[in-house]
Amino acid sequence: MPEPAFKIPSQFTFSQSSLQDYADCPRRFQLRFLDRLLYPAAESEPALENERHQQEGQHFHRLAQQYLLGIPAEKLARLANTPNLQRWWENFVHATDLSGLKDLSGLYPELTLSAPLGDYRLIAKYDLIAITGDEKLVIYDWKTYRKRPRDEWLSARWQTRVYRALLVAAGSLLISGRPIVPERCEMVYWFANHPGEPARFPYNESQYKRDWDALVKLTEEIRTASSYPLTDDRQMCSYCTYRSYCDRGIQAGNLDAIEAEMEAESLFDVNFEQIGEIEF
Ligand code: SF4
Fold it and tell me: Residue 123 C-alpha to ligand 1 middle, in angstroms?
């Protein structure tokens, strides 16, 4: 049996983004999470516009956090100071799907959960976990994608699978230490540009077992991999920052021209490592 290409340290922590990178392109996983190379190139054109969109996405997440921690909406509205932010903020505070949230006592914005996964750990940073009066646990994730992705695409993402599975595995402290029943969990993606079309993903015991088995299998595959090959899907390279390392072109892809736009937009997903404190 060939030697593993890389000895992954025992304290290594897997996340939905590292697993998704491996699934999309094993070389990207290697460059980003093992070699820890900084992003060397613009992911997509027009670079400035996409960078601004990403910064606005981070800012929106901060506003949502602060709102859920009890800062008055009127005060936060003043900080929504671009047309995109103003629209997202208006959509957020008026969304009928979210209107009950403020009345719930069990709101856990920006929560991190982790659990052992084989020799490693699995971690997830949640935008919000809400516990309803009848002890249903709802995971909310805010997305500022331009387009509303298909449910099938979202369902297959590692984020959808990791977030629900890890809540079941590690979230029992949220309900006073009682075991979490997968059927009592749901994940909701809420789209700031499409506030009336959230995507809902309920859960059940067999999905949980399937997801956890797949997580164990995938991390074992990553641990024993004898190489981390480049993806065959060259379209994915056109908006990947590592193009120069892989000799996969110089010119960044244009988001509007990329058919698999959601794959590109997902590279701009906001996570809490990127989010700083908000200033008033
Ligand atoms: S440029 Fe292509 S092959 Fe290289 S890491 Fe990115 S997606 Fe993978």
Answer: 24
